[in-house]
Amino acid sequence: MSQTTMIPRRLVVAGAAMLDASTLHGLLVGPVAARVLRAGTRGTVCAVFDRSIYVSLDSGCICVGPIALDAGPLNLLCKGWFTARPISAPLQVGDAVWVESDVLRIGPLAISFAAAQPWHPQPPGTWNRTSLAYGLAAFADALPRSLPDEGLAPLLYAELRTAGAISPVAAAAKSPIRYLTQLLQGAKAEDGGGINAEQIAPLIGLGPGLTPSGDDYLGGMLVALSLIGQISLRDKLWQLLKPLLACRTGDISRAHLAAAAEGYGCSALHDLLCAIITGATDAIPAAITSVTAIGHTSGWDALFGAVTVLRARNPNLTATRGKDRHC
Amino acid sequence: MSEIVLNTVRRGFYLDSVALMRLSRAIATRPGVQEAALMMATPANKRILADAGLLSAEGEDAAPNDLILAVRAVTTDAANSALCTASASLDQPRSGNKAAGVTHPRTLRTALREHPDATLALVSVPGPYAAGEARKALRSGLDVMIFSDNVPIEEEAALKREAEALGHLIMGPDCGTAIIGGTPLAFANRVPQGDIGVIGASGTGMQEITSLIAQAGRGISQAIGVGGRDLDREVGALSTLAAIGLLDADTATEHIVLISKPPHPDVAREVLTRVGQSRKPFTICFLGATGVHLPANARAASTLRAAAEDALGAPIGLASEAAANSSPKPGGILGLYSGGTLGAEAQLILLGAGRTVASNAAVPGAMALAQAADGAERIIDLGADEFTRGRPHPMIDPGMRTDKLRAALADARLAVILLDVVIGFGAHADPAGEVAATLDGAPANRPHVVASVTGTEADPQVRSRQIATLKAAGILVAPSNAGAAELALALSQP
Fold first, then answer.
1. Is B408 on the interface with A (CB under 8 A)?
2. Which of A106, A253, A311, B218 is the most buried (most CB within 10 A)?
3. Nearest-5° angle of CA B394, CA B93, CA B14?
4. Are B244 and B278 in contact (CB under 8 A)?
């Protein structure tokens, strides 16, 4: 391009220039995040990912990201947040975080959350055992033919799996999941009496990532118990789990579990569970896609925990799966 | 044989499991490494590491918020080397670019002070700020590539009008591919410099055409991305017109290729009028458009391959060798695509052969996937929003395609699985290896798997190595994406 000025001798990378920009605007805030974001609270950035960051404040832990992220209890979702691009955000772990009035300051970045709409998951509405049975059958039918090899999904519908080795994580989860399944199906489940926390403890912190698979599974269980109204059992489980968490899992995962103990999961999980519970079968396939797209296996693992609860509510239901569907 | 177990602990370090798994796999394949794992140091995970013979005393002391990097190797050197590599990868976002000599100034003003001879700014900031940063760059006398998306279309049009008035070029917003002065920017391939200029509103479309040109031994003068909405009515092709002007005036450019989805008719008229004012030959590839009236110096290309062939003045090889050794099967075609424009090209070829086609990113004539009739060939764009929410794009991490590919391999109703393998800067280090590994243990009567590799020999992944990996796994490799779609047609009996 000899007659133009376009040949770049050097590129100017302006990726960090937004730090000088004015305030970003929070559009949606989850119930836990709304509680945490109170004036005067301080903390640091504790994790930075491609599309979102976690900040640990003295009042709790929240996730800040783009509006394209799924709504959730810990999430503050912002207009104009970094896009899902491999050029990463110019924020780093350890950057100072503080809240001034209705503005969250993360290093030199300011996010006004004054006009952020509160997000609350909707209750499932009218349902009964029949609607749940229809929903579970449709769910089983809509599951992909091949479940992921990693996380706990290989244990979901284990009777349909072909023989083969499962991962060490799934192997370690088998026994506590069997215990929880029997517990939920047993007579003692209604009041939560007689639960042996040590049987469940191996699940806590089990799995490689930010929210370990075992924690995701337990979180899914707690959310599902809330949705079907088994609040006393949920609370009993949480009271037993809570003291075990401090030394067994990370801060971020612990924050997600605490939200689940209040009945809060991400919106995609709520949507799917409500569809299953009310037998809204048409909504289930797309909702499965949304949930299983969360994280590497987090969506699958939470779904598995939730479905363990729902299936226990309908122990006589035989799982059926479509045999003739395209992927 | 001796075994050395070494652990490194990163205090208070979080990484998502996709990244941990990817890095674990990469480290495990290093010479002398028997096994490797990166896990948060919860007691449950430490038990797993211990059971796998991967936990040392240092890892045992780690806390649940810490990350353990664990390696078992045949020698201490191999273990240390693997841990160093893993640590370097974890640090890459902060230290990698410094090592490459790229600075990270916090303002454009600082950047220009450090690099007064710069002529192009690459802007990647949140959408609402992108126009502002781009405007600052324009007013500082720079051309601008805007990598950011989520820029309001009114802002885009206003920015491009200002650029036009100032005599500068805006590439984007949402411009993911460009090759300027021989430098690949963002998702792009290393191609030789030559006399063919490319203007495109499509990232993988530009990658396919520039790569096909490179494979034929020719080169690119410039490949200018304009952003996916530039030929919409609201923007009026302002960047496309500016790019045509630049390449028209460029003595190094002899032939110009223009790629886009079908533009608004008024915009198409304006663009083609400008094309007609040039003395240079043009190839116009409006994928899926019909009834376009071209000026005398322009020829239409219905596919990306046809566009490359027209620019080259020579045909690109057919997949006859692969076809000759394979027999057709009864059944349908399932395309699992990481590149949206490549998937669109495949749809057009299948539609042109009279097949019924369904896609989640349907071209004109194809139906939506949700309404797919029995017997429809399915082309799935795995880079679409519904698949990429919360996880990397499949060009970056092809693992997302693996589950779907594995399921398809066991689907007796399929005759052919059609894949793209996109390499180059920004793409996965070994996408062909990921595909090949998925075919391990597939049933003997599996569907044919047909693929093409978009990229060049000079790319970091090396195209011929990627092809060899695919062929060794029994995958039929066509010389172009269009060729792959045609081979899929030949091998499937609906």
1. yes
2. A253
3. 80
4. yes
Count the helix, strand and coil residues of chain B and give each as a percent rounded to the nearest 5: 40, 20, 40
Test B252 with A248 for CB contact under 8 angstroms.
no
The neighbour count for residue B116, using CB atoms within 10 Å, is 8
Q: Could you give the CA distance from residue A52 to residue A68 in angstroms, rounded to a whole number?
A: 10
| Enclosing H/E stretch for B466 | helix B463-472
For A161, the token pair is 């799996």
In the structure encoding, which two tokens stand for residue A7, read together? 């040949």
Domain ranges for chain A = 10-118, 129-324
- In this complex, how many residue pairs, one in chain A and one in chain B, have their CB atoms less than 8 Å apart? 267
Predicted ipTM > 0.95? no
pLDDT in tens, B66-95: 899 999 999 999 999 999 988 888 876 543
Q: What is the pLDDT of residues B163-219, one digit of tens each?
A: 999 999 999 998 889 999 888 998 899 999 999 999 999 889 999 999 999 999 999
Indicate the pTM of the whole model. Answer: 0.55
Least CB–CB distance from B108: residue in A17, A51, A293: A17
Q: Coil, strand or helix: which one is A60?
A: strand
Residue A62 burial (CB < 10 Å; 0-12/13-18/19+)?
buried
Please indicate if any CB of chain A lies within 8 Å of the CB of B379: no
The residue with tokens 């305030």 is A23
Phi and psi angles of residue A176, each rounded to the nearest 5 degrees, phi first:
-60, -35
- Whether the pLDDT of residue B119 is over 70: the answer is yes
The verdict on a CB contact (< 8 Å) between B40 and A212 is yes
Note whether B406 contacts A290, CB cutoff 8 Å.
Answer: no
- Which positions in chain B touch A70 (Cβ < 8 Å)? 389-390
How confident is the model over B439-458, as pLDDT tens digits? Answer: 988 888 999 999 999 999 99
User: What is the distance in angstroms between the Cα of A119 and the nearest Cα belonging to chain B?
Assistant: 19
- In the prediction, which pLDDT does A90 show? 61
- Whether the Cβ atoms of residue A13 and residue B102 lie closer than 8 Å to each other: yes
Asked if residue A240 lies in contact with residue A197, where contact means CB atoms within 8 angstroms, the answer is: yes
CB atoms within 10 A of CB A228: 19
